[in-house]
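User: Um, what's this?
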Amino acid sequence: MKKQEVNVISKEHSKHAKLIRPAFGTYHRNEWAMVGAQCIVIKLLADQIINALSASYKCAYVDTTHNDDVVLMPGRLANGAVLEYTDQINHRQLNYNADFNSFKLRDTFAGVDLVIANGNHHQCKAQVVIISENKRASLQKRIDQLTNVQMLLLAENTNEVFDFIKEAIPNWEQLPLYRVGDIENIAAFFKQQMQLTKPEINGLVLAGGKSQRMGFDKGAVNWHGTEQRYYMADLLKPFCTDVFISCRADQKNEIDSNYASLADTFTDLGPYGAILSAFREKPDSAWLVIACDLPLMDESTLLYLVDNRNPSSVATAYQSPVNEFPEPLITVWEPKSYPLLLSFLAQGYSCPRKVLINSDVTLVNALNAEALTNVNTPDELERIKRILHQKIAAE
């Protein structure tokens, strides 16, 4: 009998792809559980904070129903439906008959900017502790939940931080300490935290196209004394932490080693795949994405886009002067757009513009519309050459 071959898997083998996970907590990147007070106090405090922040940020609140009686299933759920959607006059309502694990929760809260939760029932990766005599014993029981306390609040009936809190939080004296009623300073704390966690911007020059209409690589065209892909990368550097040249895997060896490159891992999807590949590499960063075929692009146009960036939106884009649609390839895509892009892809769409048209985006008008001109054909190339020659002659 032939001896059966045995395949030995080395210790280095991993059956899962090495992915960089976003810095999520239970619900979101920015989430705080408020713990240490009665639920009604937490609810009212959250209402005041959200009211102070809502002009600038999309806020969410998490709590648990406090009805003592048995809660009956609402509407059609009582008859066996698993989902009920109601389009109300001034809001929309979704009722589920299903458990929400952390994966579903993160997906549900992906479009907001911050989450505040009632910490008596829900845990978050950061906490705000309310010091209240009425809940001293309850808070002491929850001491293990205080893993990342960022602010302390004194209730009206309390004047000192409890000793067990001081022991559990060695740096408590360095934390902000306010009265529960000091909404101005409490809201200022959250605003400061949102500024501190504002996603950095990385740059992505789209240079992985096959340039079929042009007949040769558009990224290699020399408009300004160097290949266009490098010129655009240099143009992005003042506005970005890091800049990458997006390319196909077979192009990677062609890219100058002085420039960082990022090969597509979502293949055959054009710019859509390049954007997804960038988020796969750095999911907590915003990406200033720009096509390499914009020979009239200038620093002032990029500066205006970045200055008008709205991190609360899915993206900040220029409105096309031709058809009034968003220009997806000169856009700041925020981290919250990553799951959205994947969602559109799952529904069979790979058009970045379609995502922008159907999402919450911030649109700005270019001060110099000519800078948005792209080049796809030899005829367009000749026209741009004439424009550039005229500019040089006028200088």
Summary: Confidence is low (pLDDT under 50) at residues 1-9, 212-216. The first strand starts at residue 31 and ends at 35. The two ends are 86 Å apart (CA to CA).
